[in-house]
Design brief:
164 residues; alpha+beta; 8-stranded mixed β-sheet; globular; Bifunctional nuclease family protein
């Protein structure tokens, strides 16, 4: 397993949201990024957590964090465990409460959104990074631009936009 950080949330050339995970021990010019395509709502949830943006009402991942805290449980770690036919799989390791240590199946976007809210470390299986990782060619300036654009979106979004 390789510990990673969220390097950014971006849009690909077709307008799809993608989260970029980068190994903590990344060596410039040799680094890999793990892109995982996610939905717009999931991208918003991750960016809200990363930027520490306050929302008028708790988002789903905020609710989950509160439930875990209320039950005396903590998120110990998040792992992107495998990729199968282009679909990524993740697990959330939760400790405490009445259940000891539990590993819970999750979508990577939900796992990362929860990790961002609980400061839990994120890991990627070596095999996943080898199979789906891409060379890190994104510059810091490009990442900052994407974050600025997404921040502007967050500031202008109305909670009513998320009602079904």
């Amino acid at each position: 397993m390789v510990q990673v950080r969220v390097a950014g949330v971006a849009l690909d050339t077709s307008g799809q949201h993608v989260i970029l995970l980068q190994p903590l021990e990344a060596v410039p010019a040799e680094s890999k990024l793990l892109p995982i395509w996610i939905g717009e709502m999931e991208a918003t949830a991750i960016m809200v957590a990363i930027e520490g943006t306050e929302t008028p009402r708790p988002l789903t991942h905020d609710l989950l964090r509160t439930v875990l805290e209320t039950l005396g449980a903590t998120v110990e770690r998040v792992e992107i465990t495998r990729i199968d036919d282009g679909t990524f799989y993740a697990e959330i390791t939760v400790a405490g409460g009445t259940g000891g240590v539990q590993r819970i199946d999750a979508r990577p976007s939900d796992a990362v959104a929860l990790a961002a809210r609980t400061d839990a470390p994120i890991f990627v299986a070596d095999e996943v990074l080898a199979a789906a990782g891409v060379d890190d060619v994104i510059t810091e300036a490009e990442t900052e631009t994407e974050v600025e654009e997404f921040s502007k979106f967050i500031e202008e979004v109305d909670p009513e936009d998320f009602r079904e």
